[in-house]
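Try this one yourself first.
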């Protein structure tokens, strides 16, 4: 069992190895890890009556990775799955062409759009000091308009100046997009 007290966030996290378990329908036993997170309420500072917990079930041996390392691995994996879900929700390429090269081109353009939107979103988050999900960000940018905004003004009065701020210095993006 390993406990980790976060002095900066003031909460406790415990990783407890529960050992091996094999259900009747499973071919091989699996390693079970219990993770307990005892985090105080952000408003009152009181610890909850029932702590948050979850189980990790893995086939990796304890000798290969400690419980803490397995937890970090799953957290990184979860971050990737979140990003993939965000990509599908915001960009949502529909690869419906019968031709492989057409689907490949659409996917590559969609990934390029996702990366560009991600860089611009990071700029906006740094300026605003807040987090924006990609769907909200792309909707916001679409509403702020481009050269056609004289014919179709933005829905929010603040959208036009924000677009100017985001795209005021496009040269700063060239270093981020350079290939090694």
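Now uncover the answer:
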């Amino acid at each position: 069992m390993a406990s980790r007290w976060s002095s900066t966030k003031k909460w406790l996290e415990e990783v407890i190895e529960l050992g091996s378990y094999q259900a009747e329908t499973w071919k091989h036993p699996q390693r079970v890890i219990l993770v307990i997170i005892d985090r105080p309420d952000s408003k009152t500072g009181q610890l909850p009556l029932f702590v948050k917990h979850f189980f990790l079930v893995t086939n990796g041996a304890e000798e290969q990775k400690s419980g803490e390392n397995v937890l970090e691995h799953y957290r990184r994996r979860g971050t990737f799955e979140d990003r993939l879900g965000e990509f599908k929700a915001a960009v949502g390429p529909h690869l419906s062409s019968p031709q492989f090269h057409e689907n490949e081109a659409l996917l590559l353009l969609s990934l390029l759009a996702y990366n560009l939107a991600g860089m611009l979103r990071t700029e906006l988050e740094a300026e605003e000091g807040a987090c924006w999900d990609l769907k909200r960000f792309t909707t916001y940018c679409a509403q702020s308009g481009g050269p056609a905004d004289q014919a179709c003004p933005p829905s929010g009065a603040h959208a036009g100046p924000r677009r100017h701020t985001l795209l005021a210095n496009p040269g700063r993006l060239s270093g981020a997009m350079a290939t090694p």
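Discussion: The helical segments are 67-90, 100-128, 134-144, 159-166, 172-177. Confidence is low (pLDDT under 50) at residues 147-161.
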